[in-house]
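ok here's RNA helicase:
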Amino acid sequence: MEGLLSSVIDSLGPNAQPTPIQALSLKHLFAPPKDGSKWRQYLLASETGSGKSLAYMLPVLQDLKTSELSGQIPEAASKKGKARVVSPRAIILAPTHELSRQLSKTAKSLLHNVKLRVLCASQANHGLQQSSAAKMAAQLADEPAQGDGAIGSKAKQVDVLVGTPSKVLEMFRGHGWNWDLAKPVDETADFDPEGRKIRSRKFVVGEPEVGLHRVEWVVVDEADVLFDPDFEESTRMLLADIAAARGQPVLAPKPAEGTTTLPSPLVVYNYPFHFLLTSATIPNSLATYLNGHHPELIRLASPNLHKLPAKLKTEHASWTGGNKGADIEARIRQIWYKDSTSGNGRRSKILIFCNKSTRVEEFGQYLAEKSIPNIALTSTAEARGRGSNKHLEAFLRPIGPKAAVDAELADAPVKEDAPHVLITTSLLSRGLDFSHEIKHVLVTDPPRNMIDFLHRAGRTGRAGRWGTVVVFGKTKGRGSNMSKEVISKVRELKHWS
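and the structure:
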């Protein structure tokens, strides 16, 4: 579609070439199914920083616009009930609010020439009250449609909804739908006539604000996370809700905790919508799930899956003593000294990963005391409740037309007193497209597994650029065996060209 192509050229430049995973998407997802089936099932698997978001967004957006132009859009009101405030035709699921916001912004950047509406379910999570779909839709109605300043009744309807599974579930089922399930019976108990404890709902569930009957596309971004034990239940529950809303219910048994064993009896899911998953890794648990429940799903994988980016250099650093904060400080200052003697002399930005939130806070406080401004971000950090990625803006890649972004970066004033160090957990290791100014990633704790390491390391060296990941550990004496094992496993992940 010409409008989408124009936006891609604006974003990437006229000489950009598709990455391997994007080439696979162009070949398979833009062509009509050869078997004549209506709904498709695909997994796009490729290394970090390879452009997976663009690989799935382009076919989804083109299909939505094509069906709109042909007059094949379902009505906003379902046959079984009233119209909801938001009734999207596509849903993109992500594990974090931060990633949801970035994906929403990326989708909007592709729609300057194509009139489609994108709504982020994590756009306004500030304040004490939950962000309702009504408020979001009201904000959306005040904005001009992408590619067209006129707002008609159909233009106000949302085409793409982006959010976490739990947030979208809340918008569909009503705020507070699961509160009684989260509390023990003793805390919410009444008694039946025979004196037995029963649950007594002490609150009113909010009015559902999202309709799912129009959904034709569901994208599960970071599928290896959304189908792991922490997210699997809410993800599958939402998928089942969408299928039921579209008139084809599926059985969604509760997943067994901590195991990859499939529930019995085995259920093959044929969802009544296009089902698209993306991931930088395919762990055994995800492979087992897909083999059992989606045997006809087509896997499109790049040749470098489960490898580190080609231009990512790995280094291993030894702790020098008990003060790990001092070692981190020394490495940061070493990096910045090299920056001052090469290139444009500007300090690069550094991303530090820890396994625990307490370690994040400890390093953040230590570095601040050593006059190194930083942002320490954990899952409970106050900054996460602001409803935007403003707290991360300086560390994320700008989104927009390439010429405008390049000009903005070139003219940006140098603020050496602004934080150049971001400290976090795996919270920010999935999917986020970080700035090319992040040249170093420091891994301060042994990775829980190599999949976790791939995601952390992959926040630099993206899109063919150079980067360095430094893995800290004890390399001598008692307790050094773990570090040696990590060194060996990291070596196996290297991209040998």
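+1. The CA atoms of residues 130 and 145 lie 25 Å apart.
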